[in-house]
Amino acid sequence: MSKKRPGGESLPSAPSTATGPPPDHEVPAATPAPDPKRWWALAVIALAQLMVILDGTVVNIALPSAQRALGMSDADRQWVITAYTLAFGGLLLLGGRIADLVGRKRTFVIGLAGFAAASALGGAATGPGMLFAARALQGAFAAVLAPSALSLLATTFTDPKERARAFGVYGALAGGGSAVGLIVGGLLTEYLNWRWSLYVNVPIALAALLGAPAFLRDRSGRRGGHLDMPGALLGCGGLVALVYGFSEAEPRGWSSPSVLTPLMAGVVLLAAFVWWQSRAASPLLPLRIVRDRVRAGSLATMGLATIGMFGVFLFLTYYLQVVLGYPPVRTGLAFVPISAGIVIGATQIAARLLPRTAPRTLMSSGMVLAAAGMVLLSRLTVHAQYVPHVLPALLLLGVGMGLTFMPVYATATAGVPAQDAGVASAVLNTVQQMGASLGTVLLNTIATGATSRYVHAHERGPAHDGATLDAGTVHGFSVAYWCSAGVLLLAALVAGLTVRPSKDPS
Q: What is the DSSP letter of 13?
């Protein structure tokens, strides 16, 4: 049997392409009644999600202050960011499978407690090494927490309308958390000190920990299951190698052996990981999860979207502070419109339309809007003003991200067997994390190269050196924004071509 969308598109009854419950062969015959505390559970999950996503950027604005306070060198300061992304991106698949085996609620609580403790350790750091270690611990516990949170959400909300609303909130936090991190980081750095950019996680985690036992519901871990250790070593090793290689590309250059060696090692390890997963008795990542065309298309859309989007936070932060001379707080507040746009796009537009609109329509539309925002940013100059030039671009970017992320989260986790919900959520988080790391490195490399060429071409001109450097910086950003727009349009095309329901033979 099939049903028709308003546009006449035929969809199968199984919800692997929509937001309803999984088909009968993937869930128990008796569907439990909705949990009366499910909306409180959403609040707890949302707090945890906000903390994890926020922490990816909250330290950025505080980094110059932390560098001065701890005596960090320019070469070592990147490890404040890289230590977190290495551990987070590399351990996500392992964290997702642990959640399936041990129980998602239990790993959620462990992840929260560990993340809070690691944040407190980082805030109290007395030297660079202590801060780097704390950031790595944050990433490791985030790798346990993030897939547990998403899989709890996917198994708590099964009604299509409620699921759309819940994933609207989750998508808004996933897309807007990075921008919120910049705002919070600016406020804390200017009015308190850099340490509070880490301490702020402790009260958030404690609030979620207080609510978790009362409101979260989950089955116990899978009996008789065991962890695929060869798969864990191959998969996590490959992801860590790739993230490390990407992180070293900007300071060392793409031709450096320190970049090429880990990148090639990562590709080889991941190829071996895929081979092993097709033969393992209890694979870390059952390949059936990524063989579904709609789910694979949603994952590809998320990867391309994050590649294209995450450079904007780095470039715009630098543009506002260095070129336009904004202080940290004003820089953070300048990102409020993008957060507002994400919330509106995810909760007020996508969540209302998804139950009766094809997910690919929302994803493609969102990416086209975001690409238009990037084109507007590419037109910025050294003397641009915020309201007429920057604000419209941020609103388009925010709404576009909200329209895209919400249906991606809902579609990529729909129709997954309950025993695989944790690892399926981890795959989505891994794609997002890897896309963010790759996008930041690639776009930063493109911008830096374009700036160098511009300055070299104009260094003998009549312009003052400082003015030439500012103009070159803005030119480099403009080139990177055009590249971002191209990647986002590619994401729109991928979503339109792949996130389609299978033909219903009936």
A: S
Cα three-residue angle 5-9-10, rounded to 5 degrees: 95
How far apart (Å, rounded) are the C-alpha atoms in residues 214 and 217? 9
**10 forms bridges with which residues in the sheet?**
4
Q: What separation in angstroms does the CA of 276 have from each of 76, 230, 366, 368? A: 36, 8, 37, 38
CA 399 to CA 280: how far, in whole Å?
Answer: 42
CB 414 within 8 A of CB 20: yes
| C-alpha span between 295 and 83 (Å, rounded) | 30
Residue-wise pLDDT for 39-82, tens only, equals: 888 888 888 888 887 776 777 777 778 888 898 876 577 678 77
Separation of alpha carbons 402 and 340, rounded Å:
10
Tokens representing 292 are 């579904």
State the Cα–Cα distance between residues 283 and 295, nearest whole angstrom: 19
Q: What is the DSSP string of 360-417?
A: HHHHHHHHHHHHHHHHHHTT--TT--IIIIIHHHHHHHHHHHHHHHHHHHHHHTTT--
CB 346 within 8 A of CB 403: yes
Greatest CA span in the chain, whole angstroms?
Answer: 78
Rounded distance, CA 290 to CA 300, Å?
Answer: 10
Angle between helices 391-412 and 359-377 (to 10 degrees): 150
Contact assessment for residue 100 and residue 289, using Cβ atoms and an 8 Å cutoff: no
Check if the beta carbon of residue 428 is closer than 8 Å to that of residue 412.
yes
Structure-block tokens of residue 327? 């202080």
pLDDT digits (tens, 9 = 90+) for 131-165: 999 999 998 999 888 888 878 887 788 777 787 78
Two tokens, residue 52 = 């994890």
